[in-house]
Amino acid sequence: MKFAVIGHPIKHSLSPLMHHANFKALQTDDEYTALHIDPKHFHHLRDIIHEKAIDGFNITIPYKVDMLQVVDVVDTKAQMIGAINTVHIKDGVWYGYNTDGAGFKASIEEHIGGKNIVVLGAGGASRAICYTLFKDNKVTVLNRNCNRVADWPFQIDAYKYEESDVIIQQADIVINTTPVGMEGFMSETLIDIAQLKSSAVVCDIIYTPDTTPILQSAAQRGLKIINGLDMFVNQGALSYEIWTGKQANKAAMKQAVINHL
Ligand code: ATR
């Protein structure tokens, strides 16, 4: 089968390398390519994909939200998350899914259930994670702008960082979904790590670099930390499972990414 990841820019995507490791482990001759789609060609996407006989593809920045208008059928989870990261084409019909939230959830499965979870940021990644966790946990968003959660089709409390002391003190899990920690932001953390319980788990969805200021501060305090690598692997594995109905070899996928980094 033929798969791809589309985006703009796309050349830094590790998805082809990761999926090829899976194909090799499963001994299939599937293919997976990175496809740069210039914004001025996005409205031709269906023709481009059809011409390349692609069976399924992933979507990255900046097209996850726009993709809702392109597919024929939107899965409920993707609708609630407001973004599509996986398209499966079956008999010419385009089905849209979102595996980002479920990918993250799988990466912290052993820590969740009835927990106080604090999510930093209120963008697309935050919405995917909040939607996947809010039914079984108490989820609170911290963001500079609390209005961003107002139009989500599920109810999440949001506070500003300045009014978050008690929320931080009660948190069991903190998840950073903001770009704070990526290059250019290196020295900042948005919350005071010293206020967290000693049993708290701190996560960042970033995996390049493999550690970020918030994870470093948490590790220095001896807290359990989790970066975004497993989320990335899990979302890819879930996409593969949607496309093929087969289980992906997640260990091979993860090792390929680690070897590259
Ligand atoms: P993504 O789709 O990857 O989640 P996004 O939609 O651009 O990205 O969302 C990024 C989030 O990081 C936003 O919640 C943003 O805060 P605002 O909603 O207040 O803009 C947050 N963010 C970005 N830069 C930040 C910074 N320097 N400090 C704090 N939060 C920041």
Automatic annotation (TrEMBL):
<dbReference type="GO" id="GO:0050661">
    <property type="term" value="F:NADP binding"/>
</dbReference>
<dbReference type="InterPro" id="IPR022893">
    <property type="entry name" value="Shikimate_DH_fam"/>
</dbReference>
<comment type="pathway">
    <text>Metabolic intermediate biosynthesis; chorismate biosynthesis; chorismate from D-erythrose 4-phosphate and phosphoenolpyruvate: step 4/7.</text>
</comment>
<dbReference type="GO" id="GO:0009423">
    <property type="term" value="P:chorismate biosynthetic process"/>
</dbReference>
<comment type="similarity">
    <text>Belongs to the shikimate dehydrogenase family.</text>
</comment>
<dbReference type="GO" id="GO:0008652">
    <property type="term" value="P:amino acid biosynthetic process"/>
</dbReference>
<dbReference type="GO" id="GO:0004764">
    <property type="term" value="F:shikimate 3-dehydrogenase (NADP+) activity"/>
</dbReference>
<keyword id="KW-0028">Amino-acid biosynthesis</keyword>
<dbReference type="InterPro" id="IPR041121">
    <property type="entry name" value="SDH_C"/>
</dbReference>
<dbReference type="Pfam" id="PF08501">
    <property type="entry name" value="Shikimate_dh_N"/>
</dbReference>
<feature type="domain" description="Shikimate dehydrogenase substrate binding N-terminal">
    <location>
        <begin position="5"/>
        <end position="87"/>
    </location>
</feature>
<dbReference type="GO" id="GO:0005829">
    <property type="term" value="C:cytosol"/>
</dbReference>
<dbReference type="Pfam" id="PF01488">
    <property type="entry name" value="Shikimate_DH"/>
</dbReference>
<feature type="binding site">
    <location>
        <position position="85"/>
    </location>
    <ligand>
        <name>shikimate</name>
    </ligand>
</feature>
<keyword id="KW-0521">NADP</keyword>
<feature type="domain" description="SDH C-terminal">
    <location>
        <begin position="228"/>
        <end position="257"/>
    </location>
</feature>
<dbReference type="GO" id="GO:0019632">
    <property type="term" value="P:shikimate metabolic process"/>
</dbReference>
<dbReference type="InterPro" id="IPR013708">
    <property type="entry name" value="Shikimate_DH-bd_N"/>
</dbReference>
<dbReference type="GO" id="GO:0009073">
    <property type="term" value="P:aromatic amino acid family biosynthetic process"/>
</dbReference>
<feature type="binding site">
    <location>
        <position position="205"/>
    </location>
    <ligand>
        <name>NADP(+)</name>
    </ligand>
</feature>
<comment type="subunit">
    <text>Homodimer.</text>
</comment>
<feature type="active site" description="Proton acceptor">
    <location>
        <position position="64"/>
    </location>
</feature>
<feature type="binding site">
    <location>
        <position position="235"/>
    </location>
    <ligand>
        <name>shikimate</name>
    </ligand>
</feature>
<comment type="function">
    <text>Involved in the biosynthesis of the chorismate, which leads to the biosynthesis of aromatic amino acids. Catalyzes the reversible NADPH linked reduction of 3-dehydroshikimate (DHSA) to yield shikimate (SA).</text>
</comment>
<dbReference type="InterPro" id="IPR011342">
    <property type="entry name" value="Shikimate_DH"/>
</dbReference>
<feature type="binding site">
    <location>
        <position position="60"/>
    </location>
    <ligand>
        <name>shikimate</name>
    </ligand>
</feature>
<feature type="binding site">
    <location>
        <begin position="121"/>
        <end position="125"/>
    </location>
    <ligand>
        <name>NADP(+)</name>
    </ligand>
</feature>
<feature type="binding site">
    <location>
        <position position="100"/>
    </location>
    <ligand>
        <name>shikimate</name>
    </ligand>
</feature>
<protein>
    <recommendedName>
        <fullName>Shikimate dehydrogenase (NADP(+))</fullName>
        <ecNumber>1.1.1.25</ecNumber>
    </recommendedName>
</protein>
<keyword id="KW-0057">Aromatic amino acid biosynthesis</keyword>
<feature type="binding site">
    <location>
        <begin position="13"/>
        <end position="15"/>
    </location>
    <ligand>
        <name>shikimate</name>
    </ligand>
</feature>
<keyword id="KW-0560">Oxidoreductase</keyword>
<feature type="domain" description="Quinate/shikimate 5-dehydrogenase/glutamyl-tRNA reductase">
    <location>
        <begin position="109"/>
        <end position="205"/>
    </location>
</feature>
<feature type="binding site">
    <location>
        <position position="228"/>
    </location>
    <ligand>
        <name>NADP(+)</name>
    </ligand>
</feature>
<dbReference type="Pfam" id="PF18317">
    <property type="entry name" value="SDH_C"/>
</dbReference>
<dbReference type="InterPro" id="IPR006151">
    <property type="entry name" value="Shikm_DH/Glu-tRNA_Rdtase"/>
</dbReference>
<feature type="binding site">
    <location>
        <position position="207"/>
    </location>
    <ligand>
        <name>shikimate</name>
    </ligand>
</feature>
